[in-house]
Design goal:
Layout (H helix, E strand, L loop, with lengths): L7 H11 L15 H29 L2 E3 L2 E3 L4 H10 L18 H14 L1 H20 L2 H12 L3 E6 L15 E4 L5 E11 L8 E9 L10 E7 L1 E3 L5 E4 L2 E6 L10 E14 L5 H37 L23 H33 L3 H32 L11 H9 L8 H12 L6 H17 L6 H24 L4 H5 L2 H29 L5 H18 L2 H9 L15
Parallel strand pairs: 3-6
Antiparallel strand pairs: 1-2, 4-5, 5-11, 6-7, 7-11, 8-9, 10-11
Length: 591
């Protein structure tokens, strides 16, 4: 049976040593002292370790089943969902006006990592509800918010997002789902949606679907898309549930992973819907949900890597094979633990240095989102918008790679179901696909985000890195972090300059390098996080911190990333600078 131990100590390091959240000038952060965050994280850890993690394998093996129009979730899921709900975990950062606790998004992010590592498929039910809550909260009328949000906050009612149709995924301008206005102000929704996570299940008494559809007078393309609330059960004026709406699950997808989550085909046969926001402005409203979802998927990617790494590390310390070439380490046994071997160490260090860097990057992004929303900081909003495709694309690519590295650590055992590593690999794979494939993320980054507001936000990022390097350049112990970061940042700037010089003449020169650029950017972001964590660790050691080993380990892990991973920026730059010629050389018939 796989193990999971919530990394609360490292999370508190990121929150307080690195981000110094209780000192931040963000409303609500002054209440987040170390004792408060530790108490929240430890309670979440108990639930994840003792309840959710043991159900991960159950969910994978049992899956979901459609019976007479109702999806039955795996054994134990409903009881666990009740515990999550009763513990208030679904309402952490929700608006107190609708029953939420009003905590910063950063706190929910930290808890969300634990939930995702423990049981990703299970956590998607509440995660999608939270995304739907956000879209309704930001764009719906006060009447609709009052009617639907309180029970979505508590997850008595679930939520979904319905975008994809059988003939269109990325190009949503092609959707065929129709919304016909009715005399009473409602709409009749007719169409089919596929790949709808948590579209039907038995853990909530109602499910609130957010559905993209087109009005009869809609313009062509994405400018003609509207967003509608379509409840599974109609809601009476007094808040009680009424008759069943004409929104049904027509089937369950058979998938590679996340078996514990119901991925549904949804049929809308004249279902009653309610317009969210303005007509033909549905994409803007849906992107409120999707941007949070993309940050959440980036988190899922490294969270699967984190739990896989824990299991790989335990195996490497226990499994004995061969002898250390520098001298026997286990003289009383027939062989040494495999963790003594350099190639196993390389494998584990690749995992550890990515996971801890990714955690810091994601938490920093969550803090920026809090600053954008709570301080109405447009610069923070622009920066997190720029980095959203990097968080989603880079962290899920590398997160999946990390699960494969963890599986490799176990050798043949990693390929068997008994040890659980192959499930982490299968579950992590979807993160590179849903909420916009990573190829789409890279195109969004290069095609839209770099030039947003005249390139203001990417220039602000470069200035941030430059200022940090200048401030830290003469600090003892920082040169081995600052110099690699400066070199990597120069590679990123050179890539951006190449796009400016060659992308206008031939857009394919930019688009052919977009994926490499996303990874180059991701490495620079993690390099910056490691440099900042190094400074925080040096400060703690200088202050005679009680746990010297923790901070020394942090510094050693950071040195590994700067020496062995960050130099990949040069490779990505070289690939970018070859342009589009080799990528586009063949015509379609020659493949």
């Amino acid at each position: 049976m796989p193990i999971y131990q919530a990394p609360t100590k490292d999370m508190n390091f990121v929150l307080h040593d690195l981000l110094k959240i209780s000192e931040a000038d963000i409303p609500g952060y002054d209440e987040l002292d170390s004792d408060t965050t530790q108490a929240i994280l430890e309670e979440a850890a108990k639930l994840c370790e003792n309840v959710l993690a043991p159900l991960n394998k159950v969910g994978d093996e049992e899956g979901c089943h459609l019976e007479n129009g109702v999806v039955r979730t795996p054994a134990g899921f409903k009881d666990a969902f009740d515990q999550v709900r009763e513990g208030g975990w679904t309402s952490l950062d929700c608006d107190p006006e609708y029953g939420g606790q009003g905590l910063p998004y950063l706190v929910a992010t930290a808890v969300g990592e634990m939930f995702s590592s423990a049981n990703m498929a299970f956590n998607m039910y509440q995660g999608l509800t939270h995304g739907a809550y956000n879209a309704i909260h930001a764009h719906a009328s006060d009447e609709l918010k009052a009617k639907y949000l309180p029970k979505m906050v508590t997850c008595e009612w679930g939520g979904t997002m319905n975008l994809t149709e059988p003939h269109c995924g990325t190009d949503l301008g092609l959707i065929r789902t129709k919304a016909v206005p009715q005399d009473d102000g409602t709409y009749k929704i007719t169409g089919n949606k596929i790949w709808i996570s948590a579209g039907e299940h038995d853990m909530c008494e109602n499910i609130i679907h957010l559905v993209l559809a087109k009005l009869p007078d809609a313009p062509e393309g994405v400018k003609g898309i509207s967003l509608f609330i379509v409840p599974k059960f109609m809601v009476n004026d007094d808040g009680s549930l009424g008759e069943r709406n004409a929104a049904t699950c027509g089937g369950l997808e058979k998938k590679m992973g996340i078996h514990g989550n119901a991925t549904c085909v949804m049929n809308y046969d004249g279902a009653t819907g309610y317009l969210v926001g303005e007509p033909h402005k549905g994409m803007r409203a849906m992107f409120t949900m999707m941007n949070e979802a993309r940050l959440g998927v980036g988190l899922q990617g490294y969270a699967q890597g984190a739990v896989a790494y824990q299991n790989a590390l335990a195996f490497a310390k226990d499994r004995v094979q061969g002898r250390d070439v520098t001298g026997v380490k286990n003289p009383d046994g027939p062989a040494d633990p495999i963790i003594v071997h350099p190639d196993v160490r390389r494998n584990l260090m690749d995992q550890k240095s990515f996971i801890e860097g990714a955690r810091a990057f994601t938490f920093w992004g969550a803090q920026m989102l809090d600053r954008a929303h709570r301080n109405n900081d447009k610069d923070a909003d622009g920066l997190v918008s720029l980095l959203t495709p990097v968080i989603k694309g880079f962290l899920t690519d590398k997160g999946f790679e990390t699960t494969v590295l963890a599986q490799q650590t176990l050798g043949g055992s990693g390929f068997t179901q008994e040890w659980g590593l192959e499930q982490f690999v299968r579950d992590a794979r979807i993160t590179m696909i849903y909420e916009g494939t990573n190829g789409i993320q890279s195109l969004d980054l290069v095609g839209r985000k770099l030039g947003q507001d005249g390139g203001k936000h990417v220039m602000a990022f470069f200035d941030m890195v430059k200022s940090f390097c200048k401030e830290q350049g003469d600090v003892e112990g920082m040169a081995e972090f600052v110099e690699p970061l400066k070199a990597a940042s120069k590679d990123l700037q050179a890539a951006g300059m190449y796009f400016m010089q060659h992308g206008m003449k031939n857009p394919n020169n930019a688009l052919s390098g977009s994926y490499d650029f996303m990874h180059l950017f991701g490495h620079v972001c993690l390099g910056m996080m490691w440099a900042k964590m190094a400074r925080a660790s040096l400060d703690a050691l200088a202050a005679d911190a009680s746990d010297k080993e923790f901070y020394e380990t942090k510094l050693a892990t950071g040195r590994y990333y700067m020496a062995r991973q960050l130099p990949m920026t040069a490779t990505h730059l070289a690939r970018i600078q070859t342009g589009a010629d080799t990528v586009m050389a063949l015509d379609a018939a020659s493949f």
